Amino acid sequence: MSRITVDIDLNRVEGDLEFQVDLEDGVVVDARCVGTLYRGFEQIMIGRAPRDALVITPRVCGICGTAHLYAATLALEQIAHITPPAHAVQVRNLCLMAETLQSDLRQSFLFFTPDFCNAIYAAHPLAAELRDAFTPLKGSVVRGTLKATRDVLGIVALFGGQWPHSTYMLPGGISQPANSRRILDSRGILAAVRAWFEQSVIGGRLEEWMALDSADALFRWQAAAAGRERSALGLFNRFSRDIGLHRLGRGTGHLLSYGVNPQPLSEARELPAGFFNADTQQIETLDQSQINEHVRHSWFLDYPGGRHPWEGETIPDHQPGSDRYTWAKAPRYGDKVVQTGPLAELRIAGEPLISDLLAREGDNTWLRQFARLRRAGWLIGAMSETLQAIKASMDQPHYIDPGIDIWPDGESYGLVEAARGGLGHWLRIRNGVIDKYQIVTPTAWNASPRDSAGRHGHWEQSIIGLPVPDPANPVDIGHIVRSHDPCLVCTVHFIGSQRKTHFNV
């Protein structure tokens, strides 16, 4: 029995990700997800004025800046008991949905499907169609995605002044109200994106696509028209399932969502928050007090067990050569390893098609990626409805001055669903300044290392047991990891100098 360790570089977007996998006779028997960068934002925030969070935390990530701004704003509003007006909440939701939509489309066709053009698939009957559609910078779907996603970010710029790193959300509302010009321009952008999505991505009307409520209905609908079979979705479905991606990448079945779109003057969310317990197959009420972070296998100053973010620490303690192997912490919900993202979001919301597919086939690489395209369709419809609500509320206030000179002492949190899943900011203020600031990102949930009890994180679990015929081209590992839309820049922020041998996917 031969055993080797292989370092695999999986970079394609911000951040730096490695997988160390132990192979015995070509099968993964152990896996370590290595975040090679140290994120120092939690330490940067200590001692600063609370409003500094609105400027600094959106710069955690160049992809999810709107989500970080929203989470920081919610945390500040909670600690000071500030209720923003409905108009402001609607604009915030619209901009976050626009950011999520661009991320879902870019991830699908600029990040995930390019692996379908890998040389290993050159002899596949669909190879020519795959290259025509998904070749980086040249494929027809890729070119359409670049234009559509550039345009949709214009909605954020219309209301927020810029993207990324916008700072238009404030405790008490937003910096400027909507007007007829911004609404009209946003409607035009959304209509063009919808037309492209219908023609190129799904090959049919959005209403028909969103009405599908079962696996059987999905595949009947796709096969009923040649345009649907040849669409980006049809090509993705046919190829993914032909190579067995619906049988790959099962990790933890536990799912976590913080809920989508806070509702004005309410604790409710348009899509509800919750925890899907895979042991009972039940959805439980989300309890943020159950969230804790472990550092036993991370390069941080150690503490026993897991700690809630209000009690946790992010003090670097790099120990090369030890059994610690990453700059990422290990978040857990109680004692559960969870995954987060669009699959979790839609299942917890009870979306019929996703619920049926999950019940039939379990979580898997194809379904996680399919759920992202499903969510994109939902977002287009929800954004249209939100624009209607914004128009109806234009005569209402966009900002209510909370009149705060000195921020009250206390603890608070802000939870949002970013493009990649649940994003949380936990804040503590003492003597008018930030005493604690902890961020738990979606990729931290998915890419976590082992915890204090030795439980592997979700990505690690999803890789263990996978055959790797060619360690120099471990394309299946790329499929599995990229189905989560990893964003390592959110998780880690410092590159080390140790040289390693990498096998590029």
What does this structure look like?
The protein is α+β, with helices and mostly antiparallel strands and 505 residues long. The protein has a single domain (3-504), classed as Cytochrome-c3 Hydrogenase, chain B (Orthogonal Bundle), CATH 1.10.645. 40% of the residues lie in helices and 16% in strands. It has 18 helices and 17 strands. It has a 4-stranded mixed sheet. It has a 4-stranded mixed sheet with strand order 10-9-6-13. The chain has a 3-stranded antiparallel sheet with strand order 14-15-16. A hairpin with a 2-residue loop joins strand 4 and strand 5 (173-174). The longest helix has 28 residues, at 365-392. It is globular, with a radius of gyration of 22 Å. 52% of the residues are buried.
How would you concisely characterize the structure shown here?
By secondary structure, the chain is α+β, with helices and mostly antiparallel strands. The chain is about 40% helix and about 15% strand.
How would you summarize the topology of this molecule?
Elements (H helix, E strand, L loop, with lengths): L2 E7 L7 E8 L2 E9 L5 H5 L7 H4 L8 H15 L6 H27 L14 H8 L5 H21 L8 E2 L2 E2 L5 H23 L3 H6 L3 H9 L2 H5 L1 H11 L12 E3 L2 E3 L6 E3 L2 E4 L4 E3 L6 E4 L35 E4 L5 E2 L1 H7 L3 H10 L3 H28 L17 E9 L2 E10 L2 E8 L1 H5 L11 H6 L11 H8 L5 H4 L11 E2 L1
Parallel strand pairs: 1-17, 6-13
Antiparallel strand pairs: 1-2, 2-3, 4-5, 6-9, 7-8, 9-10, 11-12, 14-15, 15-16
Helix pairs in contact: 4-6, 4-14, 6-7, 7-14
Name the CATH architecture.
Orthogonal Bundle
Identify the CATH class: Mainly Alpha
Mean pLDDT: 92
Largest sheet: 4 strands, mixed
